[in-house]
Design a protein that fits this description.
Layout: E1 3-5, E2 12-14, H1 28-40, E3 45-47, H2 56-65, E4 73-78, H3 85-99, E5 106-109, H4 117-129, E6 136-139, H5 143-150, E7 162-168, H6 180-187, E8 190-194, H7 208-220, H8 224-232, E9 239-240, H9 247-255, H10 263-272
Parallel strand pairs: 3-4, 4-5, 5-6, 6-7, 7-8, 8-9
Antiparallel strand pairs: 1-2
The chain binds NADP nicotinamide-adenine-dinucleotide phosphate.
Length: about 280
């Protein structure tokens, strides 16, 4: 499993991590097993949020990481409506209790809301000083929101403390390539790709793109899903967090962390899945 420095944190984190959205909806034992299989296979980055199952997913993650907390790069998110100065601190305490841990490795603002960003960041810094979070970041921020977040005299104490921007990115949705990814690269912010398989809308084998994926996968003895992850992870300093409720999916995703595509293969995939317009509208989930 390839590992990279996670933005400004200096931590080495697996390029393929584990999403947890909707994990409470299926068989609980299988979901816990899938997370454990993912950890066994080196996917240390586990992404969750207070929003997921109204806290039920954080409890499930707590069960999966019990006894192995130190192996995990644990990320959770505060809902925008809770992201006031006091509300952020209280939300973090609730997440820590549900997760059964005393710290998060990174704590994110799930998307920009009505509370001033400077209040949320002040709370993040308070939590950091108290050792309850080791780093903080944002999610669903476009390039303008990022620029505001890192501006001198802006809400944060400087860009160095904004570790990541977790954004929607998959083969059929490449809008972040226009400006968000270049901004992240310039400022040392780790882009973390959510819904890397299109959240259930993966290219059909019968489609043109599906044929290209299958052919490239065949050459590598890999699967189309693994090729998709390798395509996204071609961006230096980036990470992806596919969700897998089945242990076999988790193991397959982990193995993608070592797959290297040639320039020619990357070019063909880029053509089969064109980049599209700059701002298709940012879904907030
Ligand atoms: P996703 O990871 O794009 O897709 C998940 C689907 O792909 C599931 O149906 C899963 O099946 C399937 N799958 C996983 N590995 C597979 C494999 N190797 N082969 C075939 N199918 C496979 O969807 P997502 O849950 O939307 O996104 C991933 C994570 O990103 C979320 O769980 C969440 O942590 C995060 N996220 C963040 C935001 C945000 O606003 N910040 C928004 C959305 C998502 P099984 O479950 O049956 O294994």
């Amino acid at each position: 499993m390839q590992r990279r420095t996670f933005g400004s944190t200096g931590r080495q984190v697996a390029v393929v991590g584990q999403g947890t959205w909707n994990l409470e909806k299926g068989d609980r034992r299988a979901a816990v097993e899938a997370l454990c299989a993912g950890l066994d296979a080196g996917m240390d980055h586990v992404d969750t949020a207070e929003m997921y199952g109204d806290g039920a997913v954080e409890e499930l993650v707590g069960e999966a990481i019990a006894g192995r907390r130190d192996e995990v790069f644990l990320v959770s998110k505060v809902l925008p409506e809770n992201a006031s100065r006091r509300g952020t601190v209280a939300a973090c305490e609730r997440s820590l209790a549900r997760l059964g841990t005393d710290r998060l490795d990174c704590y994110l603002l799930h998307w920009a809301g009505s509370h001033p960003l400077r209040d949320t960041v002040a709370a993040f810094e308070e939590l950091r000083a108290a050792g309850k979070i080791l780093a903080w970041g944002v999610s669903n921020f476009d390039e303008e929101e990022l620029a505001e977040a890192v501006a001198p005299g802006g809400p944060g104490p400087g860009p160095a403390n904004l570790a990541c921007d977790q954004v929607l990115y998959h083969l059929k949705e490449r809008a972040v390539e226009h400006a968000v990814l270049p901004f992240c690269a310039e400022h040392g912010i780790a882009p973390v790709f959510y819904s890397p398989f299109g959240s259930g809308d993966f290219p059909k084998p019968s489609s043109r793109g599906g044929h290209v994926l299958a052919e490239i996968a065949g050459r590598h003895g890999a699967t189309p899903h693994q090729v998709a992850l390798a395509f996204l992870l071609r961006h230096p300093g980036s990470f992806a967090i596919p969700k897998a409720a089945r242990p076999e999916h988790a193991r397959e995703n982990a193995a993608a962390g070592d797959l290297q595509l040639s320039e020619e293969e990357l070019r063909r995939l880029g053509e089969a899945f064109p980049r599209g317009p700059r701002r298709p509208g940012v879904p907030v989930l």
